[in-house]
Structures
1.
Amino acid sequence: MMDLKLKINRSDPVVAESTAIVPLEQDKVFDFIANQFHQNYQKWMPDVVELEPLDGVPVAVGSKLRQIRLENDDRITSMFEITAIEPCHQFSFEGLDQPYRQTYQMNAGEASTTHVTFRFELLEVEILMRPFVKLIRAAMVEGVESTVETLNQLLNQKVKQ
């Protein structure tokens, strides 16, 4: 008798990334994104209708937050945890009940500008959704580009203040 075991591997992450150059110093961009995350996140993520830092503010590595997103008129509650804070350079968090990671990378550019890169990673795709990875990636790219555009507009408004 043959013992047949089917090994089902985790899927590769699905990644979307976009960059904008903003006319603001790197430390000010980091302050807006990371240090004031609890105040500003909903401004560039309009589908997030509630954000609650569960461990107080400001957020730090290990801080957990609860968010409520509005998706097709449904309120979706999820939790995430801050996983990386590198002052003036990087801010990341990962879903606790959904397999995703968001990373904001800030690199100094020329003449007091900052390159802001937003990367969204869907860390695992359910087996039934794997045939649709190209569609999922296309939707993610559109969402990431929209997020970066909104973030860029907000940071440009900060310059004018």
2.
Amino acid sequence: MARLLKTYQDIIKIKLQKEFNIDNSLAVPRVEKVVVNMGVGDVSTDKQNLEKATATFTQIVGQKPSLQQAKKAIADFKIRKGDVVGLKATLRGVRMYEFVDKLFSIVLPRVRDFSGVNRKAFDKHGNYTLGLREQIIFPEVNYDKIDKVRGLEITFVISAKSKEKSLRLLELLGMPFAKEEN
């Protein structure tokens, strides 16, 4: 069992239930899934770059990504309808908690000049989206073997339908939020 999953079940779930006066334990906020996206729109010219990007993405998330295709042609970007423009993986269960634990404890502290993540990146449903500028901050990625530095978008889909509950859940899980400005 993942370390963070055990912590959630033993400590965080009980703490949230008391803080928000939730009677039903199934109504306690939880991370339902984590969706990781990587844009690879430039691979339409060279298919080997797609294989390299897919290999790197697989190392990062621990599972094979699905290929996301362009829905329409955009001449300015030299993209045709049906070209692969992104990679996407949806993480759930133990694999999700292992990825989140690695992200919070190893990856984010490696970001240069890191002062915490934005507290305001929640949508109206309480989900949180985090953008990373480069994939080389992950320990699995060998800097010498990547062809191009690519960004990642990580979305935490949370069962709570309010920003306050979602924020508190992510704080307890260990997400390093930036200090509040007064």
